[in-house]
Write a structure and sequence with these properties.
single chain; 1006 residues; mainly beta; 22-stranded antiparallel barrel; 48% strand; globular
């Protein structure tokens, strides 16, 4: 039975109660303001604002010399405002030239605004603890907005960022709904793969991205479940990615791998606006391997028997001994993974408010099926609340935002991708005529039976933040953030007896279940004081603040076997044997003090200094604190006298930065000596064993970052380009240092005097190609040339990392054998004998290093508008190498890529692939194992992908102040690549490739 506690579980009620009070203030202020206007204004003016093509929502209409009288256009570009006949309207909107228009006694006015690209430099960019104008920033900050996100039918924020930001490389790991993405901002800094994640901050609240899944439950995914799927992209207003030292050092130890700032949507002043949107769509796997058909497969199998000198087929060689139809053909990739997933989305929000109080309340629901056979679904829903209030004298301000999301997964526990790739093409049909699973007289394991093994998960996620601000003087403002997160997930993986052939009469006594119950909650308080002054001496600012954070993680992993009934398989009490595999609770405490000093002289010379003193509970006494800092500068040379009035150069800036950040992603309390429950009873008592050695001396990883950049705008910023060069050095690596077996421990956590370097060039280009009449065309381009290198690693040759890394090479390499070719006499693969000992052996001959990092990557986006039509499409591209899929020795009862048909048959043949064997030719089997780890399986996996395309049509309806938008979207629609083994984006095999999806929807605003 569940009990509800107002103290423990009623936080949402507190928030709603608080929101109700503030909403009541909103109504009061709105009424007071309205009554005041009525006493001094004479008549109402109505009008519409457009850009000459489409209506412009959010345009500010103000009355000159009257600061308390303004209006904002609605979604149809319409407005109304009370004025005097002799008043002048001031019309302003970001990206357009400000207009002054006399009322001249009119009651209806139509306004056409002119595009002004130079004002884009006045956009305020979120830099975390402060905001800065685009033109004045000294750091490297990439940004996308809701306009970029809303064109994409995606459920993960990282999917929305793919291909749109220089220096940000994102790879999708699976096409199964709820799956994850890998992200690296300017390369891999740490030797530990799990220590390269950026810091995520949602509305000022740090959001832990550590996996919440368990390897024994989330087996459908390549890696454990990520919490990032909880975040709904539709609720996001903007995403900023901080990359260099100037931007990240103020986050200290948490900013070594970059910072991702997520700002959710907020309410805006104006009439109450309702927005409803609904969409539906379908998805299919992007690309499959080209495999042998039945004719090629049977020929391969028969030739393998001939090669091995076997004249009689075995009783279990069903594919060629006459048991299975040798004329039957099934494309198992299409049969098992070629289904169509269905996507349905519903979004709704209401927003509005007065000039003092604004609100937004929204909700969303997403449902997605899989491409597999069966009733599998992934569901996600959530609610959003935002409330902003400013006092009458504009000194006190409070902002509250809260997002609560629920995910519900009901998916197969096992991937069928590798099964589909290896299953014989003449294998029996899946079903009998009566619809039951076909076991073909016990001659095969029906792959659909594995779908009875299920993965179920339910995740609840709350992120809430309140910002209190008080303006002490016009120059000094005191602020404090109060953030809270609470995440709970419950995962199960069941393996019932129904996965077996019923003829064997296997009962539920063989059924099993794994369970994962994970919780994570945190609170954070960040008070700060900000001073800004703008005068004849220039513009200066000082920010000082502190951070106090506490996070508690809990994890309970259990398993049960031997159930009395499969209907009770989710009840561990019904299991004969219950095991507690892990029961952990850890606490992470963090505190810091930070500061920023900013100075700008005549908007030409800018310097920005940041510093942070960090303290983390993840390190031992005497090592818990460290200091990080950075210095950034900028010279706006376009504001110099010799370029001030240039007709061709509208903007020019040189900027640079240098500083340090840290990394404490090592896990909690790793310096302590710990003990673990053995689970084994001795005289009725469960034993314990040591699990970690004490080491109080290990400390922070250090990342030193250097950057130089040039930003230029030409022809009124119609052409705007940025060139950035960066060099990062990460040292004092936190790793597990191997120990001798006599110690009883495989390794000890410690700092290694190894150094990793990341450097590269980044280019971004924005062009306003055409703006003529009713037609506009804009292009955005980004390109990154990254380089990753292991600079030093003392004692590498004698360490356990000796066959993983090489000095002077990237961290992401493959050490492979070098294929010489196929011996024309024996038909066996031959390889280079590197050490010259006359034989091929590991590791002495597997020494060739292959770089698997991308050589370059980027994206090309085009946005076109004609009257009420808008077309937006993005091409993503990557130049890289990747492994082909190893399929085992050709000739056994397993399908092969179609290219393997070109194999050696007889003495004198010169073919690319070796002799077939059923498995008895040990020389061929051994050679194939070397082949699968050789450069022969390294392939060009470069690709160009139509990542996203969106076509929208927007028009007003006959109803007053109502508009509609019809939307057609596509994701991953086309892929151009030379890669032979399926989707080229993947870095691992055996998992469902990304889906290409098409959705259609409609949005109503009224």
């Amino acid at each position: 039975m569940n009990y509800f506690s107002l103290f423990k579980d009623g936080r949402a009620l507190y928030c709603l109660f608080f929101a109700g009070i503030l909403l009541s203030f909103s109504s009061s202020y709105a009424k007071i303001s309205k009554r005041h206007f009525k006493t001094i204004l004479q008549h109402q003016v109505q009008g519409t604002v457009t850009d000459g093509i489409t209506p412009l929502p959010g345009v500010t209409i103000a009355v000159k010399s009257r600061s308390n009288n303004s209006s904002i256009t609605d979604y149809n570009g319409q407005f109304s405002i009370n004025v005097s006949p002799s008043d002048t309207l001031i019309i302003s909107f970001l990206g357009f030239k400000t207009l002054n228009m006399p009322v001249a006694g009119r009651t209806k006015i139509t306004i056409v605004m002119q595009f002004d690209t130079t004002t884009l430099q006045e956009v305020k960019i979120n830099a975390g603890y402060y905001s800065v104008k685009e033109s004045e920033r000294t750091g490297n900050i990439a940004r996308i907005t809701s306009k970029d996100i809303e064109t994409q039918p995606v459920t993960n924020i990282l999917a929305a960022m793919q291909g749109r930001m220089a220096g940000v490389n994102i790879i999708q790991t699976t096409g199964v709904p709820g799956g994850g993405f890998d992200i690296k901002i300017r390369g891999q800094n740490s030797l530990r793969a799990a220590a390269n994640n950026p810091l995520y901050i949602i509305d000022g609240v740090p959001y832990a991205s550590d996996p919440i899944g368990y390897s024994q439950t989330s087996t459908i995914y390549p890696s454990s479940t990520s919490p990032l799927n909880s975040i709904n992209p539709e609720t996001i207003e903007s995403i900023e990615v901080l990359k260099d030292a100037d931007a990240t050092s103020i986050y200290g130890s948490r900013g070594a791998n970059g910072v991702v700032l997520i700002t959710t949507k907020k309410g805006k002043a104006g009439r109450t606006k309702f927005t409803l949107s609904s969409s539906t769509g379908a998805g299919k796997a992007t690309k499959f391997m080209k495999l042998m058909d039945t004719r090629q497969y049977v020929a391969m199998r028969k030739q393998a028997f001939i090669n091995d000198g076997i004249t009689t087929y075995g009783a279990s060689d069903y594919d060629i001994n006459g048991t299975w139809n040798q004329n039957r053909y099934t494309d198992w990739q299409k049969e098992l993974m070629g289904g169509t997933s269905q996507l349905n989305d519903l979004q709704g929000s209401v927003s509005g408010g007065s000039d003092k109080t604004q609100f937004l309340i929204g909700g969303n629901y997403h449902q997605e099926t899989t491409v597999y056979t069966g009733d599998f679904k992934y569901k996600k829903g959530g609610v959003q609340l935002s409330l902003n209030h400013v006092s009458k004298d504009d000194r006190f301000q409070i902002n509250f935002s809260g997002v609560y999301n629920i995910q519900n997964s009901n998916l197969p526990a096992n991937e069928l991708t590798y099964t589909a790739q290896t299953l014989a093409p003449n294998a029996p049909s899946l079903y009998n005529p009566d619809g039951s699973l076909n076991w073909e007289n016990q001659t095969w394991q029906n792959p659909l039976a594995m779908l009875n093994s299920k993965f179920k998960a339910k995740t609840k996620d709350l992120v809430a933040n309140a910002l209190l601000s008080y303006k002490i003087t016009p120059e000094i403002t005191a602020k404090s953030d109060f953030g809270y997160t609470d995440l709970k997930t419950n995962e199960t993986r069941t393996t019932p007896s129904t996965i077996y052939n019923p003829i064997y009469n296997i009962s539920s006594a063989r059924s099993s279940m794994f369970s994962n119950i994970t919780g994570r909650s945190s609170w954070i308080v960040e008070p700060r004081l900000n001073w800004e002054k703008d005068g004849d001496f220039g513009k200066a600012g000082l920010l000082i603040g502190a951070t106090f954070q506490n996070q508690i993680n809990s994890a309970l992993y259990q398993s049960g076997t031997g159930f009395s009934s499969n209907s009770l398989i989710y009840n561990l009490a019904a299991a004969k044997t219950v095991s507690i595999l892990a029961d952990d609770e850890t606490q992470y405490r963090y505190q810091a003090f930070f500061a920023r000093l900013f100075y700008s002289y005549q908007r030409r010379y800018i310097i920005n200094l940041t510093a942070r003193r960090d303290g983390s509970s993840r390190f031992g006494p005497g090592r818990q604190f460290a200091t990080f800092g950075a210095a950034g500068f900028a010279w706006l040379f376009s504001n110099e006298k010799f370029l001030k009035n240039s007709s061709w150069m509208s903007f020019g800036k040189i900027r640079g930065s240098y500083g340090t950040t840290g990394n404490d992603q090592i896990g909690d309390h790793q310096y302590l000596d710990t003990y673990t429950i053995t689970g084994i009873s001795y005289n009725g008592t469960i034993g314990m064993r040591p699990s970690r050695l004490f080491n109080p001396d290990f400390g922070w990883e250090i990342n030193k970052k250097l950057e130089l950049a040039l930003e230029t705008g030409f022809l009124n910023d119609r052409i705007f380009a940025t060139f950035s060069w960066y060099s990062n050095r990460s040292s004092n690596q936190l790793v597990g240092i191997p120990l001798s077996g006599v110690t009883g421990f495989a390794s000890i956590q410690a700092n290694l005097n190894a150094e990793v370097a990341n450097s590269g060039l980044e280019l971004t280009l924005r062009t306003a190609n055409i703006k003529r009449g009713n037609f506009q065309w804009q292009t955005n381009f980004n390109l990154t040339f990254p380089k990753n290198e292991l600079v030093s690693f003392p004692g590498l040759e004698s360490s356990t990392y000796s066959q993983k890394y090489r000095i002077g090479q990237p961290l992401n390499i493959a050490l492979v054998y070098q294929l010489k070719g196929v011996n024309v006499q024996t038909g066996i693969y031959e390889f280079e004998d590197i050490n010259g000992d006359g034989k091929i052996s590991y590791p002495l001959d597997r020494q060739k290093a292959v770089n698997l990092n991308p050589k370059y990557y980027g994206g090309l986006q085009n946005q076109l508008a004609y009257k009420n039509w808008n077309l937006d499409f993005l091409f993503q591209f990557t130049k890289q190498q990747n492994r082909l899929i190893p399929m085992g020795a050709a000739g056994s009862m397993s399908n092969q890529p179609a290219r393997i048909a070109d194999a050696w048959l007889q003495s004198g043949d010169s073919r690319p692939y070796q002799i077939y064997t059923t498995g008895v030719n040990s020389a061929a089997v051994n050679a194939d194992s070397y082949f699968s780890e050789s450069d022969a399986l390294i392939s060009d996996s470069s690709f160009i992908r139509l990542k996203n395309i969106a076509l929208t049509y927007q028009s007003p309806l006959s109803l007053t102040e109502t508009s509609r938008k019809v939307i057609l979207q596509g994701q991953n629609l086309l892929t151009f690549t030379k890669y032979k083994d399926g989707d080229p984006e993947f870095t691992s095999y055996g998992f469902l490739p990304p889906l290409k999806t098409v959705t259609a929807g409609i949005q109503l605003t009224f």
